[in-house]
Amino acid sequence: MKIYLNLFIVLLLTNCNNDNSLAKDLSLLPFNGNVKTIQNINYKGEIKFGEPSKTIVDYRYRNIFHFSKKWVESETNIDLGFRLDRNYKYKFDTKGNCIENYDHDYNLNKFNLDSRFIYNNEKHSESEYYFEKDNGKLSFKLVIEYDKHDNLTKFSERNNQNITISELSVKNHYEKGLLIESKKLDSTGNLLNSIKYKYHTDSNKKSELLYWSSFSFEKETEQTLFDLNGNIVEFNSFDNNKKLIGKTKYEYDANNNMIKKVKYDKNGDLALKINYEFNSKNQVIHKTEFDESNEEKQEIYDYNTNGFVSEVKVIEYDYRGREETTIFSFDYKIDSYKNWTIQNTYENNELVLISERKIDYY
Fold it and tell me: Is the pTM for the entire model greater than 0.85?
C-alpha cells in the first residue's frame, strides 16, 4: 500500500498540478480549455456488475480549484480520520503569485485570513500573518528588501505596530556586475554565514554560475557545481576540517532531463544510484534504483495517446533475490477538451481507487 500511495501522489502531481506549481506559473497548469473550476474527489472503488463502482469517499486527496481573471482559489481538504477537519484556501494573482492563505474555522463555519503576501515589482516584499487569538488583526509581518540586482539585502520581523523585533542583513559583493560573495549578518553585525560564487564564461554564452559554496559559522562547507544550462551536476559536503563527507553527482541528456543520480556516503561508498530513461516526448519510461546494498528496484512507465500514464510496473527483489512485481494500471474518461474527468486505478488488476474531476469551463 505504501508503494501505491507514493505512486498516486506522483500521478496526482503529473495529471493535476498542486498549489506550489500554481504559485510558479498559471500557464503551466495541465488543463485544456478556459477552465473556471475544478473539483477533484477520490473514492475507494470495487468492481460491480463488471463496471468500476465508487464505495466511500477518500478525503485524503481532495482539491477544488477556482479560476477567474484576477485570481485562482485552491481549496484543499484533509481528513483527520473521524471527520473532515482541515480546510484551506489560497488565492493567486494573475502572475501566479500566492497572495492570501485562509484557514477554515469549522466551529464558526467561516474562513479566516491566515497570511497575506505582498509583491513589489514582481518581488516578494512583505508577508503578513494573522493568528486566531488576534481575531483577524495583524499579528506580525516579515519585510524583505533587495538591492538593484534583485538580490536579498535585508530580512526583518516586525510586530503589529511595525516595530522591528529581529533583523538579518546581507552584504553582497559584486565584480563586473556579477555576485561574488554574500555575507549574512545578525542584528548585531555578527557573521552567520557567507556564500561565495565563481563563474564560468563561455564564448557563446553569457557568464553562468558554475560554483557555489556556503561557509556556516561552524566552518562547514557545501559546494554545488552547475552546467551551463543551470543543471546541478555535483553536490559536495565537507566537515569543519574540509574533509569530504558526502557527494552526489547528476547527469542529463540533451533535453536537460536528469538521467542519472549517484550519491555517496561519508566513507565514499555508494549509497544510492538512480537511472532514468525518457521517450521522445520527455516522459520518463524507465527508472532503475540501487541502494547501498545494491538491491535493485525498477519502475517501467507506459502512456496512452492523450499523454496520461496508463501503466506503472514496479519490480523489486526481496532479501533472497526473488523478484516481486506489482502492476498499477490506469484508465480514463475524458471530456471534449481532452481533460480527464475519471481516473480508475488498479493494483494487480484489482480496482483500488476512483478519482473523479468535475471541470467547469467559461
Answer: no
**β-pair partners for 353:** 345
Whole-angstrom distance, CA of residue 198 vs CA of residue 26:
34
More confident: 100 or 3: 100
* Residues 181, 196 contacting (CB under 8 angstroms): yes
Q: For residue 351, which phi and psi values (nearest 5 degrees)?
A: -65, 125
Contacts of 340 (CB under 8 A, 6+ apart): 15, 306, 308, 332, 333, 334, 357
80: buried, middle or exposed (CB in 10 Å: 19+, 13-18, 0-12)?
exposed
For the stretch 113-167, pLDDT in tens is 999 999 887 788 999 999 988 988 999 999 999 999 989 999 999 999 999 999 9
Extended beta strands in 26-139, E state: 35-48, 51-67, 72-79, 84-92, 98-105, 110-120, 123-129
Q: How distant, in Å, are the alpha carbons of 87, 89, 116 from that of 110?
A: 10, 11, 17
Q: Residues of 144-154 as b/e, b for ≥16 C-beta within 10 angstroms?
A: bebeeeeebbe
